[in-house]
Design a protein that fits this description.
The chain is mainly α. It folds into three domains: 6-90, no CATH class; 92-162, no CATH class; 163-193. The chain has seven helices and no strands. Helix 1 packs across helix 3 (64-90), helix 2 runs antiparallel to helix 3 and helix 4 (93-103) runs antiparallel to helix 5 (114-133). It starts with 5 loop residues before the first helix and ends with a helix.
Length: 193
């Protein structure tokens, strides 16, 4: 999404949002409702901090370029989150974490225990889902987060990782991604010595 030019970005984002609204409107509305403050903050920060032509004359005027850049960043975020909704819809929780576990294999070269890392990620996502499933305002949510963990949160959770072997095409794609990451790091090292 980051490399798309403005026109294709707006078209892709609009198509993703419309299709997701048709297929799963409740999930899409819930996501947008949760993200509304962040999207507004992005628009405000870009609108009032990017130099350019002012929208109106006055002391607190945003710039046209800033509002446009803020809109594009908000569109990128919505497109990525909508794509993530499709990924979560098409994969089960166990398959998703199994995929993350497989993709974390290179971390073992750095001494990271990927079993522990995948388990922590799974438990964190489970805790966040259970916490966000309850209808409460932000003050009650903040109070619940700041309290010591007790009661239902201390119950054991059964975690199952569905591990599948990667196909040849998937291995080739991962190798290509690794090569591109290394080339990018080498490129930035030459630019910023």
């Amino acid at each position: 999404m980051q490399i798309l030019q403005p026109t294709p970005l707006v078209i892709v984002t609009a198509a993703l949002v419309v299709i997701t609204f048709v297929v799963e409107s409740a999930r899409m509305l819930r996501m947008l409702r949760r993200m509304r403050v962040l999207l507004l903050a992005i628009l405000l920060v870009y609108g009032w901090s990017t130099p350019g032509l002012y929208v109106w004359s006055g002391w607190l005027a945003p710039t046209q370029e800033g509002l446009w850049q803020g809109f594009l960043q908000a569109a990128r975020l919505v497109a990525v989150l909508t794509s993530l909704q499709w990924l979560l819809r098409s994969l089960g929780r166990e398959a998703l974490f199994g995929g993350i576990y497989l993709l974390a294999a290179p971390l073992t070269l750095l001494g990271v225990n990927r079993q522990r890392w995948a388990l922590r990620l799974t438990l964190t996502m489970d805790f966040a889902d259970r916490l966000l499933a309850e209808r409460q305002d932000w003050r009650a949510l903040w109070q619940q987060i700041s309290q010591p963990v007790t009661g239902q949160w201390l119950q054991p959770v059964n975690v199952t990782l569905q591990l599948r072997s990667l196909s040849g095409a998937q291995r080739a794609l991962l190798l290509l991604l690794l090569v591109l990451i290394v080339l990018t790091l080498l490129f930035f090292r030459q630019i910023f010595p």
